[in-house]
Write a structure and sequence with these properties.
two-stranded antiparallel sheet, alpha/beta, 239 residues
Length: 239
């Protein structure tokens, strides 16, 4: 209920408040996943869990948006795609009725992710994909040198959103992959961003030259994707 109230309060100005360089970079990465892994020529039915104001509903294809907040769905309805109010843990869809699913930033961080993953498995057809992004356990302002010596553990944090106090679960890579593997999926792709440069969620300006260099480094320095503040992954249903 807290998440629903919080996002209802934020929905009128949500898009404006999230027009930041950090969010833009994250959205671009998500769209690359969509273009790479979803074959639109096959016209699969795609479910966007936690569709928010409908950013990802605008890509070509057959899509359904689901979100817990009616305020966000009022915005998402402008996409012209069907939208439904529901929680990620209780999807109002028939078994094996969806080709692929999107579950982008913060949805799994803020729900019962074990239940949500089981629901994704239930509604997906065999070999269907889940494309996702989540905040990792490094998403609390660690400098890279601190990541090298800090134990990487999943944990919950409390944060204020829209005047509500909400629990946010921060994942390790192992925890995220194990949760999907334990519910009938295999890892198809794993990546991350904001390895050396901290995400600046509230900054409205672009990245400064030094910050841009740090973002470039994460593309060329091997063995660092485990350390990103945001994880991007694709999981395929195998049973």
């Amino acid at each position: 209920m807290g998440a629903r109230k919080a996002y209802n309060k934020m929905s009128p100005g949500y898009n404006d408040r999230h027009s930041t360089a950090t969010v833009g970079r994250m959205r671009a990465r998500e769209m690359r996943l969509i273009r790479e892994f979803i074959n639109q020529k096959d016209n699969p039915l795609v479910l966007d869990v936690g569709c928010g104001t409908g950013y990802h509903l605008h890509f070509a294809g057959s899509m359904i948006g689901i979100d817990i907040s009616e305020g966000m769905l009022e915005k998402a309805a402008g996409s012209g795609k069907p939208v439904v109010q529901a929680a990620a843990e209780a999807l109002p869809l028939k078994d094996e009725s969806i080709g692929h699913a999107l579950c982008f930033f913060a949805v799994l961080n803020m729900c019962d992710f074990h239940k949500a993953i089981r629901e994704l498995n239930r509604v997906l057809k065999w070999k269907g994909l889940v494309l996702l992004s989540v905040a990792s356990a490094w998403d609390r302002g660690y400098r890279f040198r601190h990541k090298l010596v800090t134990e990487h553990r999943p944990h919950d944090e409390e944060l204020g959103i829209g005047g509500e106090r909400l629990r946010m679960h921060l994942f390790t890579r192992k925890e995220l992959e194990d949760a999907f593997k334990g519910n009938g999926f295999k890892v198809e792709h794993f990546g991350s961003s904001f390895v050396f440069q901290k995400p600046e969620w509230k900054s409205v300006g672009g990245f400064r030259p030094g910050e841009a260099v740090k973002l470039l480094l994460e593309k060329i320095v091997p063995g660092t994707k485990h350390y990103g503040s945001v994880y991007f992954a694709v999981f395929r249903k195998v049973f």
